[in-house]
Inverse folding.
């Protein structure tokens, strides 16, 4: 036999010594003659009962997998399912890296909230070469975009699926200009979107996106998502709209609003760049970055996602482009230790069919934030708002699931948090990709409803060390 003590023996000696007082001079353990003898150990020192949370989790995980097995068995082959409990993997099934659709907005959101100031605002300004004199702007009035994706007018707002969604009334800028005393512009109105690059659509997006309304012609200066039909009648609804020249349309819209308020504008509207050293006349701030992220997640707003991505690129590298922003987001995820293996991020919205994201990365992002985090507060809620308003209504999941949707022609995904019947929260990712999936959200929603109805594990107190 070896002369070395066993691990069990060392542990018992250490634990026993920890229970005895130590003589300060000699450093040896002593026993007070007058002290009452220690209570006998009912539960052995090395009993599994001394880690009751570990025991409870193992039992609860086994129960969860058993309860979910019928739903797991129904999953199509190209389906990734991950469920975690405070970072501990409970379910892990299927291929890991798939096309994410809009669940990639979770990556955009977490990076935006950490790289940008959540309380900051993006500023749209009106400027001129010189300050107005006696209410007159000599030369052109420059409308300089600051990246606000939610500038709208009442005519466009009528088309919103959710009339309560966040927006920023562009007329506020015209009101602010008039409030300074401006009565005449002796030039035209020039839209300046030079804050970001001039890439209107990501080069790898399908051509059909340009006419299907998924996303507007991207620009640092966009009013009504860069759609035609509103610039000369901003308060009138129309179905005759197409993607247009975003900065020129924004300039024409401001010109119309100013004329409607009695301001004489001699010239027309165009796109261009404000001269260096221009004087700001008035400005309109966006909603906070936090609120823009909420709009992006709750309504799955692709245009907002893409402009926030460009803003991240601008702040990190000085280049307001999709490539710079996507690169900065990936770098941020890696820097904080998230598993980015297999990640391909061609845009910030998830519209690109070449995007690839690991289901484990999505789960890790959600776990890192947690169900009581700012990120969780900005997600749509089942049966209540945003893209989840019509889903899981009148089911046990209503009001108890906060998650990001992801939907393209052959992608159906959902990733977020589900509150179980015992009040605890689980993180989940469910992503199915392929043309063979059934129409609608039935497989995904049935699984999430199953998560909500999972049985609770054994009471931790029942597994704790027995009392003497």
């Amino acid at each position: 036999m070896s002369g070395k003590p066993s691990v069990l023996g060392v542990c018992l000696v250490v634990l026993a010594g920890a229970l005895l007082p130590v003589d300060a001079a000699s450093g040896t353990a002593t026993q007070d003659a007058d002290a009452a003898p220690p209570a006998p150990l009912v539960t052995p020192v090395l009993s599994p009962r001394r880690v009751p949370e570990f025991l409870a989790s193992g039992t609860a995980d086994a129960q969860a997998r058993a309860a979910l097995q019928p739903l797991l068995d129904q999953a199509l082959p190209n389906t990734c399912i991950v469920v975690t409990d405070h970072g501990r993997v409970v379910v892990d099934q299927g291929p890991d890296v798939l096309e994410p659709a809009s669940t990639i907005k979770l990556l955009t959101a977490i990076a935006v909230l950490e790289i940008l100031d959540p309380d900051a605002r993006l500023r749209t300004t009106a400027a001129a070469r010189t300050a107005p004199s006696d209410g007159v702007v000599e030369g052109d009035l420059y409308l300089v975009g600051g990246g606000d994706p939610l500038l709208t007018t009442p005519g466009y707002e009528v088309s919103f699926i959710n009339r309560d969604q966040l927006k920023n009334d562009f007329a506020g800028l015209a009101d602010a200009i008039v409030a300074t005393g401006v009565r005449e512009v002796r030039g035209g109105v020039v839209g300046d979107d030079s804050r970001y690059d001039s890439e209107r659509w990501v080069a790898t997006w399908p051509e059909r996106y340009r006419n299907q309304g998924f996303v507007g012609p991207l620009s640092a200066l966009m009013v009504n998502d860069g759609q035609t039909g509103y610039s000369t009648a901003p308060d009138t609804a129309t179905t005759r709209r197409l993607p247009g020249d975003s900065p020129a349309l924004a300039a024409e819209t401001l010109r119309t609003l100013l004329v409607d308020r009695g301001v004489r504008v001699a010239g027309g509207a165009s796109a261009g760049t404000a001269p260096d050293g221009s004087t700001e006349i008035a400005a309109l701030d966006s909603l906070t970055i936090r609120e823009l992220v909420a709009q992006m997640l709750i309504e799955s707003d692709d245009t907002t996602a893409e402009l926030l991505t460009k803003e991240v690129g601008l702040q990190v590298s000085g280049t307001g482009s999709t490539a710079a922003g996507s690169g900065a987001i990936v770098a941020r995820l890696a820097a904080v230790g998230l598993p980015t293996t297999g990640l391909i991020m061609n845009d910030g919205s998830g519209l690109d069919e070449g995007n690839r994201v690991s289901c484990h990365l999505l789960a890790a992002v959600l776990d890192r934030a947690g169900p009581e985090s700012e990120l969780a507060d900005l997600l749509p809620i089942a049966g209540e708002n945003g893209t989840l308003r019509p889903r899981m209504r009148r089911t046990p999941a209503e009001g108890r699931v906060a998650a990001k949707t992801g939907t393209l022609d052959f992608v159906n995904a959902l990733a977020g948090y589900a509150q179980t019947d015992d009040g605890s929260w689980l993180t989940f990712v469910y992503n199915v990709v392929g043309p063979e999936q059934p129409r609608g959200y039935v497989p995904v929603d049935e699984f999430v409803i199953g998560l909500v109805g999972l049985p609770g594990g054994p009471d931790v107190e029942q597994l704790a060390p027995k009392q003497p």
